[in-house]
């Protein structure tokens, strides 16, 4: 099974249209998966396809770079979960004893936290930055800046769940 969540970007025009188009074009691309294509390759191809569809729609509307959506998708095949993520929507692995976030938010705050680790900023600098929630990667840009994906399939045992959600 394939599950997708897309969340049109706040503050950008026509976010609902962007998320609808992303989901539909992702599904359309994934449906063309051939038996010898890996699930991970099909997910990557599908996310690139839907990005192009949203970017082309944005360009046709005269909104280059001002129309976008986040997207997370997961495929469960034989109790093995493969996933892909762009933006700040999330995927969680819920076990009876823990909840693990599988994705990393593609936002300016995480970029700033790297500078904190290097000693170039303080955590207070990050907390006080008014742009910290700004996305650094999303569907609808000319090129996708960051894509997270499962490095290997995740075993989902009985009683465990996978949750896809927006913020």
Describe this structure as you would to a colleague.
With 167 residues, the chain is α+β, with helices and mostly antiparallel strands. The protein has four helices and eight strands, in the order βααββββααβββ. It has helices spanning 15-31, 39-60, 108-117, 123-127, and strands spanning 2-8, 69-77, 80-86, 90-95, 98-101, 148-149, 154-155, 161-165. The strands form two sheets. Strands 1, 2, 3, 6 and 7 form a five-stranded antiparallel β-sheet that branches. A hairpin with a 2-residue loop joins β4 (90-95) and β5 (98-101). α1 packs antiparallel against α2 (39-60). It is globular. The model has no long low-confidence stretch (mean pLDDT 93).
Record the SSE blueprint.
Layout (H helix, E strand, L loop, with lengths): L1 E7 L6 H17 L7 H22 L8 E9 L2 E7 L3 E6 L2 E4 L6 H10 L5 H5 L20 E2 L4 E2 L5 E5 L2
Antiparallel strand pairs: 1-2, 2-3, 3-6, 3-7, 4-5, 4-8
Helix pairs in contact: 1-2
Write a brief caption for the model:
Helix 1 packs antiparallel against helix 2 (39-60). The strands form two sheets. Strands 1, 2, 3, 6 and 7 form a five-stranded antiparallel beta sheet that branches. A three-stranded antiparallel beta sheet has the order 5-4-8, with no helix packed on it.
Q: Which ranges are low-confidence, i.e. pLDDT below 50, for 5 or more consecutive residues?
A: none
Proportion in β-strands = 25-35%
- In total, the number of strands is 8
Given the C-alpha coordinates, what overall shape results? globular
On the 0 to 100 scale, the average pLDDT is 93
Taking the sheet with the most strands, its summary is: 5 strands, antiparallel
In angstroms, what is the radius of gyration?
17 Å
Q: Assign the structural class, choosing from mainly alpha, mainly beta, alpha/beta, alpha+beta, or little secondary structure.
A: alpha+beta
The run of helices and strands is EHHEEEEHHEEE
Oligomeric state, counting identical vs distinct chains? single chain
Tally of separate helices: 4
Straight-line N-to-C gap: 23 Å
Q: Helix amount, in percent?
A: 25-40%
């Amino acid at each position: 099974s394939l599950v997708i969540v897309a969340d049109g970007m706040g503050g950008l025009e026509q976010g609902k249209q962007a998320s609808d188009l992303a989901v539909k074009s992702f599904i359309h691309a994934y449906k063309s998966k051939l038996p010898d294509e890996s699930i991970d390759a099909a997910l990557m191809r599908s996310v690139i396809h839907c990005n192009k569809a949203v970017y082309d729609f944005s360009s046709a509307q005269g909104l280059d770079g001002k129309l976008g959506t986040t997207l997370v998708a997961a495929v469960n095949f034989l109790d093995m979960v493969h996933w892909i993520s762009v933006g700040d929507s999330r995927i969680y692995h819920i076990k009876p004893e823990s909840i693990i976030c599988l994705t990393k938010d593609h936002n300016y705050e995480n970029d700033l936290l790297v500078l904190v680790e290097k000693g170039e900023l303080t955590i207070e600098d990050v907390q006080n930055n008014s742009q910290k929630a700004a996305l650094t990667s999303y569907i609808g840009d000319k090129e996708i800046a960051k894509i997270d994906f499962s490095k290997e399939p995740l075993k989902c045992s009985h009683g465990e769940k996978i949750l896809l959600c927006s913020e």
